[in-house]
Amino acid sequence: MEPLVQRIDILRRTFDEACRGIADIKVLQDLRNKFLSRKRGYLAQLLEELKSLPVSERPEAGGRINVLKDYIQSRLDEAERTLAATTTASPRIDLSLPGRTRLWGAPHPLMLVTQEIEAIFLSMGFAIEEGPEIETDYYNFEALNFPPHHPARDDWDTLYTTDNLLLRTHTSPVQIRVMERRKPPIRIICPGRVFRHETPDATHLPMFYQVEGLVVDEGITFANLKGTLEYFLKTFFGEKVKIRFRPSFFPFTEPSAEVDIECLVCGGGDAQCRVCGGTGWKEILGAGMVDPQVFKNVNIDPERYAGWAFGLGVERVAMISHQLPEIKSFYENDLRFIRQFMIK
Ligand code: PHE
């Protein structure tokens, strides 16, 4: 049998070797038991053997055993601390688990259509403006040349919050707000939400989106209105689309027109079509030359300046362009529906 001193050295090397394999707390506990257990641990055995040494050699050998014991103790403690830190910081990855699926959103089709409309008008030099959704009676009606109790107010089934405040029934009040702030030349569009006390059907909802447009400058004529709107509609729907202008009435424009587009949902061939009602045409915007009274209300000289305006229904444009028979589908938040419009 080798001398005790040599065996102490061997044990140290054996321990160092075993230390490299500490992968988890269980292995560490085993090592602690094997080396340090009071009854059967390797060190306990060495101490036991001290007795067989001559008395003169015992202190030195005993000292060495104690040094080794302290060494083993401190290395095991250190290993335990490292293990604790790494296991809480990075839990072990189980590669057999199924991956986490992400629920991708998608831009809403009405937002995409609005952006497309904006892009066409921006390219013609228009700027984008916004106004409040809760309006005063003055901006929504009076400044737009609807006197109190005027029967034309009945065309806009208004939701009042107080006697004087209402949810705007159209984006036209933004025309007034902009003309109060700025002097001509003005070339703007105003996208936004509007509200009407309306019974929902295939093409109507109590809340929907409009894009308003306004041009004011010297020498503006109805030809500018017609040319610009035709350019816009052909860019949006394609060169071949059929458009018609019909005479109409709005208190804030004179003369006024409504613009219809051929019904691309049924192609004019379905007498029961829910979108065009079998007429083959769908009204998508109202327009006209700014009434001189409106200019007077905002201190713009109607002798010097002329202008035109339009208000377009975004849902209708989207329905015709995507051939959708139901306006409701835009508001049901069905991701299967919404995701379809990402690529046009
Ligand atoms: N504001 C009108 C509507 O909501 C549309 C319109 C706007 C008509 C501008 C003429 C000029 O029906």
Largest sheet: 7 strands, mixed
Sheet-strand content, in percent, reads: 15-25%
Number of strands: 10
Tell me, what's the shape?
Answer: rod-shaped
What CATH architecture label of the largest domain applies? Answer: 2-Layer Sandwich
CATH topology of the largest domain: BirA Bifunctional Protein, domain 2
List the helices and strands and how they pair.
Layout: H1 4-19, H2 25-36, H3 42-50, H4 58-89, H5 109-123, E1 127-128, E2 134-136, H6 137-140, E3 159-160, E4 165-167, H7 173-181, E5 186-195, E6 207-217, H8 222-237, E7 243-250, E8 253-262, E9 281-290, H9 292-297, E10 306-313, H10 314-322, H11 335-338
Parallel strand pairs: 1-5
Antiparallel strand pairs: 2-4, 3-4, 5-6, 6-10, 7-8, 8-9, 9-10
Helix pairs in contact: 1-4, 2-4, 3-4, 5-10
Summarize the structure.
The protein is an alpha+beta fold and 344 residues long. It folds into two domains: 2-89, no CATH class; 109-341, Bira Bifunctional Protein, Domain 2 (BirA Bifunctional Protein, domain 2), CATH 3.30.930. It has eleven helices and ten strands.
Structural overview:
With 344 residues, the protein is an alpha+beta fold. It folds into two domains: 88 residues, no CATH class; 233 residues, Bira Bifunctional Protein, Domain 2 (BirA Bifunctional Protein, domain 2, 2-Layer Sandwich), CATH 3.30.930. The protein is 38% helix and 19% strand. It contains eleven helices and ten strands. The strands form two sheets. It has a seven-stranded mixed sheet, sandwiched between helices. It has a three-stranded antiparallel sheet with strand order 2-4-3. It binds phenylalanine. The site of phenylalanine (PHE) has 11 residues, from strand 8, strand 9 and strand 10.
